[in-house]
Specification:
The chain is mainly α. Helix content is about 65%, strand content about 0%.
Length: about 170
């Protein structure tokens, strides 16, 4: 049972309604995470703005799913692994890739994402050197850190709210 309500359209603050309409258009439905985040329209707006900006960066959709899966596991979120397993499958990830991304053992990206989440953004010189040896530029390091931050926000909201899992979505 959720501790913070996933709002119905009638309960949703006016400022959040167009934001949720954008999610509906993009995703095809409005996941309960967004309906819960709509309790704080400013947080919803900021989350969406940063997520959309990062989607235009150097990380591919697949790489962003790898990060989401690795970080959600570290943060003990139950909602986000279900959501990002669904979205990861949509990007072509296999069940094995999803499992290994959640473990942080799939590739250098999932190792780095897990290290950032576990260390709360702190990396030691060896970890930075390993990331650079794997081909991570300064741009990519910053974008990975930002993606970890976005996922941590999502994980913390879902952990606080105990958001009811709605993935995979029911046929609509």
């Amino acid at each position: 049972m959720s501790r913070i309500a996933a709002l119905t359209p009638l309960q949703t603050p006016a400022a959040a309604l167009p934001l949720l309409a954008g999610v509906q258009k993009t995703v095809g439905f409005v996941p309960k995470f967004f309906k819960t985040l709509a309790n704080a329209p400013a947080a919803l707006a900021d989350y969406l703005q940063l997520s959309q900006a990062l989607a235009k960066g150097s990380l591919s959709a697949v790489e962003r799913e790898y990060i989401a899966l690795a970080v959600s596991e570290v943060n003990g979120c139950e909602y986000c692994p279900a959501a990002h397993t669904f979205f990861g499958e949509k990007t072509g990830l296999s069940p094995e890739e999803i499992r290994r991304a959640r473990e942080g053992s799939l590739n250098a990206l999932t190792v780095l994402a897990r290290q950032l989440a576990q260390g709360r953004g702190h990396l030691n010189d060896e970890q930075i050197a390993a990331a650079r040896a794997a081909g991570f530029s300064d741009t990519k390091l910053i974008e990975v850190a930002a993606e970890v931050g976005v996922m941590t926000l999502s994980n913390h909201v879902n952990n606080t709210a105990v958001t009811d899992i709605d993935f995979p979505p029911a046929a609509r």
